[in-house]
Amino acid sequence: MEKKSTSKKTKTTAKKKPSASTGTKKRKSKKSKGLSPAYKILVMCLGVIAACMLILLITLVVPMDGASEFFKQTEIEAPVISRPAVKKEKKVVQESKPQNSITQRFEKSDDSNNTSSSVKKDNSEQIAEIAKSQKKKTSESKKTEAAKTENTKAAETKQSSASRSTSTATKPAETAKPIVTETKPAPASAPAKTNTTTSAKTNTPAVENTSAATKPVVTENKKNTEPVKQNPPVTLDLNKPSANVKPAAPAQTGSKYNFPQAVNNAQLVFIFDDGGQNLSHLEKFLELPFPITIAVLPRLANSKASAAKVRASGNELMLHQPMQPLKGGVNPGPGAITSEMTEDQIISTLFQNVTEIGPIAGFNNHEGSAITADAEKMALVMRFASENSIYFLDSRTNVETTVPYVASEMGYSYYERNIFLDNEKTRDNVLKELNKGLTLANKNGVVIMIGHVWSADFLPELLKEIYPELKAKGYTFTVVSKSKGLKY
Description:
Blueprint: H1 2-61, H2 64-73, H3 82-96, H4 100-169, H5 172-182, H6 189-201, H7 204-220, E1 267-275, H8 279-286, E2 293-296, H9 303-313, E3 316-323, H10 343-357, E4 362-367, H11 375-387, E5 391-394, H12 403-410, E6 415-416, E7 419-420, H13 427-444, E8 446-452, H14 459-472, E9 476-478
Parallel strand pairs: 1-2, 1-8, 1-9, 2-3, 3-4, 4-5, 5-6, 7-8
Helix pairs in contact: 5-6, 6-7, 8-9, 10-11, 11-12
């Protein structure tokens, strides 16, 4: 068994040896076959790359003429390119005119300088044109101002000449008489006489004819008589009345008080509080030539009589309802509403006062700065007014009044005071407050102004004095219930 194994081993070794020699031969042959084409490919690639690099270098470094000579010398066909022909033509031009490049540079610089200078010239021309236009505008504005001043001067001179002409034209007979007497001997004096007499009766064209007719008469009588002094020629407008006709009185452009013109017939409402204290004072206000509203205090000695006088005069009557003020020391008077009252007490107080003064169109508050600031109390007051179909007017003795708030919340309407006329008892103060009221009237269409009966010593006379001018300016006078001042 051991011999067989050894013999097998020897066979295997013998077989393996020749295989190793054959394998080495095959590998060597494979290596020699695989390496030769790779080297060839590398060499070819390198050669192609080198040729391309040479061509690039030649085209970049060597000029085109030298390149063509190079290709001729090497007997290689030069590639046909369109560039060499163009460049050759440019070279020929450059060779023929070698100094043109320098001149062209100077020409270009000159052109650039010329363009910049032209731009500068254009800019300067534009600036000059703007300055000229500004000078023209200023000169035109000066001319217009001068023309305006000349026109005003001419108008003034026309007015003065017109006034002079009216003064001279009032005496045409005096100027015509000497002419008539001088021309009596002459036979042609009759027509001149008729012209002068008719010129005094007719319109301005006849006056102009007299001046034209008298000129030859004066020249004819220079031989026998002394020269007659002629008045300067009078230029009269045809639109103006004739000499004998009295001109109408011109409308007064300026007024004594210079009140502004009314806008859309603005309404003026005058209320006079504190009625019921003095009947003689009240009567002065009832004599005013325009409608007014009088507010009468309740529960006074003359309250009923004052209310009766107001109704008899045809003016509007109000209840001047006393209410508690913020100042504790001020007594609002009898029949007042106080902050301590209950709802029933407030309603009963209002009812008693209305029945005493009424029938009334409405009522406003006397004092009452504390009550008008109390929304609950004012809700009761305004509910009473709406239920009895009368209005309530807030005198606005307190800036923090709750009347607008209560009216908007409960859907009630009301009026409110805009101006107090006589808190300071002077004419100047009344006129100052009145002018404020006129501006409000022109802005809102109506103004409600309150005065007091205790200003009877000067206020009624002042109002009578200014009434014609206010009426001429277009203002209308009305009472509270007929005014546009109702608010919601």
